TrEMBL record:
Keyword check for Lipid biosynthesis: no
Domain ABC transporter: 347-590
Primary localization: membrane
Subcellular location: Cell membrane
SMART domains: AAA (SM00382)
InterPro entries: AAA+_ATPase, ABC1_TM_dom, ABC1_TM_sf, ABC_transporter-like_ATP-bd, ABC_transporter-like_CS, P-loop_NTPase, Type_1_exporter
Disordered as annotated region, ranges: 590-617
Protein name: ABC transporter ATP-binding protein
Length: 617
């Protein structure tokens, strides 16, 4: 993504919001460095006084010693001030970086799921780690040094002109090509700086995807292809870094030879002027000593400008995420969710419409559906018909684009997201577990306030019951039982085991509404029936919506809703729908949807009533 044309200064000034707490120390540290640099510039003036005074006139030894002591004192003072800079600036820089990182993460949690289609995991990782590190280094070193070097160069230039206007003018002629080259450098470097940061993010994405999908890569023997891809991206990044280094070295070269050349011309001219008594020897010594003090600040300007442009690229990437408005927000005056009615919570989808993006086809086109309190409703439809989409509207993971979702008569958009998500628990088909103990993974399903009020024994009991209902007793046989860390995304567990822990997490908080996206697909039919019976026993009064692909799952529900062409075209008991609803019959017999035998095929569904009866018993 090319950098915007907004000025570097404006982009970097926005950092003040995060840097404000550190500003007093940064300013104090910068002032210490500035004073140290000005002291360095004062030394030549002392030399001028010594040469023109005691050395060339009366030869007073005492005056020379005094001058030497003054130079020594100035040197010590300069060293102390440089130390002060380090002591003052290092710590606040790290806390600014930490705050920015935390804000970025908090904001990411608030952003819609669709954001992840735009920025991959690696890009977000790079933005929150590498980019912020670059910004912090610039803030505590680059910015301070840039201000100090620029001020030193300006003050030095004035001193040169005051010491000898003619020599100063000759020396400062070099500023014209330097400024022009600096402008060119800025134009070129900001493009490659941004490209390098984007490519580093892409490279991080490759690593993340390969590690994540390592089993697929190995199973299909695609390790070499992944390596080739990685090497290509790493080469591209290296090429861009070399472009940066080349631009940087061209600038540094120009900043070294142009001032050196003009200084050489000024030296020749100065010697002639001193020989013809047009300038004093003391002034000549002071002139060249000042120019020598300016050499390092001048040479460092290229590097510091490069750092600034790197920080600007990092800042832009950080602000792009921060400027992305959360699609969902809490209402200004939220309504409180009333206590759970005795019979359970009633969920209503009223003329719900939804499209995944502006201008894209509507997935849901006027869904009317009531989930009766305390009952289980199975949602059935062809693959891609919008079942998962519909499910995600209930806990308000997305907002409807038309119509409304109501919990006990209240629009979910009038409640706080915390209230809605505390009331509605979800288990997805692909269960994501976190790198934490089994206990912590399960307790994640309990709303924070309720968890805080629980004693450790009560929390353990909630975990035990949830795992029992989800038939996840296998966790007790893990090496450390409930304390076993189940690893990144629970990779050390089988698919069915992960699903059961994720289900336990969904029910641990005894939610008012339970939304299940085919969460038992990896279980055998007998275990699924046991889990469903457990849910009925424990979650009495919980209203449940479950996406079902298998007849066995449907048979366990009280009612079935059929999703067809973005609408609910039938609601009823499984057996009745099977007899009266052709699309329902087709969905259940299609065995994989469009590739199945088709609407005309004879259903081969086992009679589910027997299974349901068995489970209820
Ligand atoms: N984040 C998204 N951005 C854009 N389109 C999406 C997104 N998620 C789903 N879709 C599209 O919305 C449609 C419905 O998808 P959805 O996952 O809701 O179907 P489903 O009925 O749950 O399918 P399945 O039974 O295979 O799980 C599909 O055409 C899908 O491509």
């Amino acid at each position: 993504m090319p950098p915007s044309d907004a000025s570097t200064t404006r982009a970097l000034l926005r950092l003040v919001r995060w840097a404000r707490p550190a500003l007093p120390r940064v300013v104090a540290g910068g002032s210490a460095t500035l004073v140290a640099s000005l002291i360095a510039l004062a030394v030549p003036q002392v030399l001028r006084w010594v040469v023109n005074g005691p050395l060339l006139t009366d030869g007073s030894r005492a005056a020379v010693v005094q001058a030497a002591l003054l130079v020594l004192l100035l040197g010590v003072l300069e060293a102390v001030l440089v130390w002060c800079r380090r002591a003052l600036i290092a710590t606040p820089g790290t806390s600014v970086e930490r705050t920015m990182r935390t804000d970025l993460f908090r904001h990411l949690l608030d952003l819609p799921v669709a954001v992840h289609d735009r920025w991959s995991g690696g890009q977000l990782l790079q933005r929150s780690m590498g980019d912020l590190h670059t910004v912090r280094r610039w803030m505590v070193f680059g910015l301070v040094q840039l201000v100090v070097s620029a001020t030193t160069v300006l003050v030095g230039a004035v001193l040169l002109l005051v010491t000898s206007p003619l020599l100063g003018a000759v020396y400062l002629c070099g500023a014209v090509p330097v400024v022009w080259l600096g402008f060119r450098f800025r134009q070129d470097y900001k493009v490659v700086a941004r490209r390098a940061r984007d490519q580093a993010g892409d490279l991080a994405t490759s690593v993340e995807e390969s590690v994540h999908g390592i089993r697929v890569l190995k199973a299909f023997g695609r390790g070499e292809d992944a390596l080739e891809d990685f090497v290509r991206q790493a080469d591209e990044l290296r090429g861009t870094e070399l472009d940066k280094a080349r631009a940087q070295s061209r600038m540094s070269f120009a900043l070294a030879w142009i001032p050196e050349t003009t200084l050489a011309v000024a030296l020749g001219l100065g010697v002639w002027l001193a020989a013809t008594d047009r300038v004093s020897v003391g002034a000549l010594v002071a002139f060249f000593a000042t120019a020598a003090v300016m050499t390092r600040p001048v040479e460092s300007l290229g590097q510091l400008l490069g750092m600034t442009l790197d920080a600007r690229a990092g800042t832009d990437r950080f602000l792009e995420v921060m400027d992305t408005a959360p699609a969902l927000s809490d209402p200004a005056a939220p309504v409180a969710l009333p206590p759970v009615p005795a019979e359970g919570t009633r969920v209503e989808l009223r003329d719900v419409r939804f499209a995944h993006g502006a201008g894209t086809r509507e997935v849901l086109r006027g869904v009317d559906l009531v989930l009766e309190p305390g009952l289980t409703t199975a949602l059935v439809g062809l693959t891609g018909s919008g079942k998962t989409t519909l499910l995600q509207l209930v806990p308000r993971l997305y907002d409807v684009t038309g119509g409304a979702v109501l919990l006990d008569g209240l629009d979910v958009r009038d409640l706080t997201r915390r209230d809605v998500r505390g009331a509605v628990a979800v288990a997805f088909e692909d269960p994501i577990l976190f790198s934490a103990s089994v206990r912590d993974n399960v307790l994640m399903g309990v709303p924070v306030e309720r968890l805080a009020a629980m004693s450790p024994q009560e929390a353990d009991e909630a975990v035990r019951v949830a795992l029992d209902v989800a038939r996840a007793g296998f966790v007790h046989r893990l090496p450390q039982g409930l304390d076993t860390v189940i690893g990144e995304e629970g990779m050390s567990l089988s698919g069915g085991q992960r699903q059961r822990v994720a289900l336990a997490r969904a029910i641990a908080g005894r939610p008012r509404v339970l939304v299940l996206d085919d969460p038992l697909s990896a279980l055998d039919v007998a275990t699924e029936a046991e889990v469903t019976a457990g849910l009925r026993r424990v979650l009495t009064g919980t209203t449940t919506l479950v996406v079902a692909h298998r007849t066995s799952t449907v048979a366990l529900a009280d009612r079935v809703a059929v999703l067809e062409d973005g609408r609910v075209t039938g609601v009823g008991r499984h057996a009745d729908l099977l007899a009266t609803h052709p699309h329902y019959r087709y969905v259940l017999t299609a065995e994989g949807g469009p590739d199945g035998p088709g609407p005309g095929a004879h259903p081969t569904v086992p009679d589910p009533r027997g299974l349901a009866e068995e489970v209820r018993r």
